[in-house]
Amino acid sequence: MVKVRKRAEKRLDVQTVGRNRIPGVAFTKEMKDGYTILVPMMAPIHFSMLKNILHDQGYRVELLENSGQAIVEEGLKYVHNDTCYPALLIIGQMLDAIKSGKYDENKIAFLMSQTGGGCRASNYIYLLRRALKKAGYGHIPVVSFNVSGMEKSSGFRLTIPLIFKLITAIVYGDGLMAMNNQIKAYEIEKGRSARLVEHWISRLTSQFNEGEGFTIPQMQNNFREMAATFTAIPCEHKPKVKVGIVGEIYVKYASLGNNNLEEFLAEQDCEVMVPGLLDFALYTLDAKPENSRLYGGNTISALVCEAISRYFQRMQKVMIDTIALYPNFIAPPSFSHTKSLVEGVIGTGCLMGEGWLLTAEMLELVENGYGNIVCTQPFGCLPNHICGKGMIRKIREREPLANIVPIDYDPSATKVNQENRIKLMLAVARENMRHEQEANKKQNKPDVPAPSRQGTDPFGQLGRMIPRLSIVSMLN
């Protein structure tokens, strides 16, 4: 009877799992040398270094930067419009790349990340395979980029040394992004900060190729010199509205997903801050011990994740401590500090999508002086709506001066409407800044105080004594 039951269960598994799943084409060892792996662009600084590391490992990788309405239209042809907007964009971008004629369709593969959690992003890879088959490109391999063993390819392997190098590049990317964002808004010679970023990407890549730049002392030296070179850029420090960007990970970082949000805010004469990418990796690692603590489970894997997380946080601390030595910069907070901010606001067991991290990043931005926040929300992302827009009231109960506007991104949302909502938020921010300047003038205080991460009041010390407006109350 036991054998009969097992055979029946096995048949049931095959029918349930295999009935609607599109079989994938394997990316083999033989393909590694002759195939170009196309990767959708997300965070330019980070992904440029990740691409260079993969090149050094023998992979031919290109970052897709094609954009335009044609990508949305292409995605809508092959992805249901109720699906997550990032999936629609990424798949549309990949299909648009094939049809551009730039690549040999018989010599390319696509790389797609899988988080392995409850977020539908884990299913993007199956949506892509289905779309490729419907479009007549079912022979193109799709490689899964994951560390949870969801899918494996003989031609693409994430070894422990490779993962270590990729995480190190993300730490460097976070530091470069933080310093670049705080300098480019004030630089006298426009574009100088961007050129310095390119210089450091090239320099770090050369170090990586020589097996250097990965140890703690080497990272300390690099960050020290990095901060010194950015500090040397001549700047005109004048009062500007400081804006933070949070949201679903793809829409937060990718210009294709947020309609060039950072560029638009720069045109509005704002200083922009985006939380680092490493925190999301640490949040993913932290999920295992959190689940073990709350629901039980494999304690060994939880302990392993905690040990790995501690080492990566040590690397993050090197970056934070070095940047903090330079008074021109506000150093990013540590992951542990960011996590502590949500106590009493949202539970750390909220782990779908960006989960509690999204709420924590908004609190982190307010604490660091970026109280004006754009919360980017893709259509179809329920966790983002709950942990983003759904937490604004709770955040304002703790931080009454938080000026947060949620912006929806989907195929039917117009760029004009999105920008008008952001402009309304900025109008409130400028009015608040004017009140702050008047209060500072009465007390003979400077309009642009020296940055300080700890104990920063985003609207000045007298901010809580001044009646302020809220973009949320004006829109809802």
Whole-angstrom Rg: 23 Å
Helix content: 40-55%
Order of helices and strands: HHEHEHHEHEHHHEHHEHHHHEHHEHH
User: How would you sum up the major sheet?
Assistant: 4 strands, parallel
Strand fraction equals: 5-15%
The overall average pLDDT, rounded, is 86
Please count the beta strands (DSSP E, at least 2 residues each). 8
Structural class by secondary-structure content: alpha/beta
Distance between the termini: 62 Å
Notes on the protein architecture:
This protein has a four-stranded parallel sheet, with helices on both faces. 53% of the residues lie in helices and 9% in strands. Helix 4 (69-78) packs across helix 5, helix 9 (216-231) packs parallel to helix 13 and helix 12 runs antiparallel to helix 13. Strand 1 (36-40), helix 3 and strand 2 (60-64) form a beta-alpha-beta unit. Among the domains are: 20-158, Rossmann fold (3-Layer(aba) Sandwich), CATH 3.40.50; 241-275 and 341-476, Rossmann fold. The longest helix is centred in the last third of the chain and has 28 residues, at 415-442. With 476 residues, the protein is α/β, with parallel strands linked by helices. It has helices at 2-18, 31-34, 44-56, 69-78, 85-99, 124-134, 160-184, 192-209, 216-231, 249-253, 261-267, 278-295, 299-324, 335-340, 355-367, 382-387, 392-398, 415-442, 471-475; strands at residues 36-40, 60-64, 108-113, 142-145, 241-247, 270-273, 372-378, 403-409. The radius of gyration is 23 Å and the shape is globular. Residues 1-19 and 449-476 have low confidence and may be disordered. It contains 19 helices and eight strands.
